[in-house]
Each structure stands twice: as C-alpha cells, then as structure tokens.
Design brief:
Elements: H1 3-18, E1 24-25, H2 33-54, E2 70-80, E3 85-95, H3 101-135, E4 139-140
Antiparallel strand pairs: 1-4, 2-3
C-alpha cells in the first residue's frame, strides 16, 4: 500500500468515525463538575482499554503495487567469421511492467475490504465502550 493510499484511508476512517462526541452523565455521583470530570476521565480511560482489548483493530494486509521498472545493461562479444574479428559492445535499457487490470482491481478490492474491516472493528469498539460506560453508571445525555 502506498503512503498516499494509507493517508487517504486513515483520513476517511477518521472522518467516518469522528461524528459527534457523546456527552456522559452519571446520576449516582455528586453534582460537582470537578468530581464529575475526574470520574468521567477515569471511566473513559478504563472503558477505552476494555474496548480495545475486546475488539482490537485488525492487522490489515493490502497487496503492494508493482515496481516502476527495471534497468538492464550488459556487454556483448561477437565473432565475425568472415573477418575473423571479435567486436565488443554494450547495451542498456529499461523494462517497465504493464499494469494488469486484474491486479489493479484486486488491489482496489483489497483496500475496500480493509476499510470495511476497520469500520466494523470501530463499531464493535464503540459498542463495547458504551456498554462499559453503562455498567459503570454513565449514561449519554
């Protein structure tokens, strides 16, 4: 996967999952903003760890693109039988692979599947996180 493709996928994933931040409230705690803020930070940290542990992001394997080309060079040594002489020469060229439509399709398909897998993992993490917060007495406002 090229760097620009990774950046694009990360940007798209961040855009899709950012959404609106949930405001949490715990009616079981004292209505002191400082206490609520501290307890919310503790609960959020704990539930993030639970969510990441129960629904980790998968290791994504996306096929890499083909190399841009190969440089080929060498020397020749030929014999001319009519003159009984040897002659030396050199050659140099570049071979550029032709894009295979099937490989291009599979690369795009694999990137799409990888994005779908990451989104599914994020949804699972969100569900675990919300359940953990509810278990600790926090409710979305």
């Amino acid at each position: 996967m090229t760097m620009s493709t990774k950046i694009t996928m990360i940007g798209l994933l961040a855009t899709l999952i950012s959404g609106c931040a949930t405001q949490w409230n715990n009616p079981n705690l004292v209505n002191d903003p400082a206490v609520l803020q501290q307890q919310l930070a503790i609960a959020t940290g704990q539930c993030k760890q639970v969510a990441l542990g129960n629904a980790p992001m998968p290791d994504i394997q996306v096929p890499t693109s083909q190399p841009s080309g190969y440089a080929i060079s060498g020397t020749t040594n030929t014999y001319n039988s009519s003159t009984s002489n040897y002659s030396n020469g050199t050659y140099a060229t570049t071979v550029t692979p032709v894009a295979n439509p099937a490989q291009s399709f599979m690369g795009g398909y694999a990137q799409g599947v990888a994005l779908g897998v990451m989104l599914r993992a994020k949804r699972n993490q969100d569900a675990v996180f919300d359940g953990c917060m509810a278990k600790l007495g926090w409710m979305p406002e």
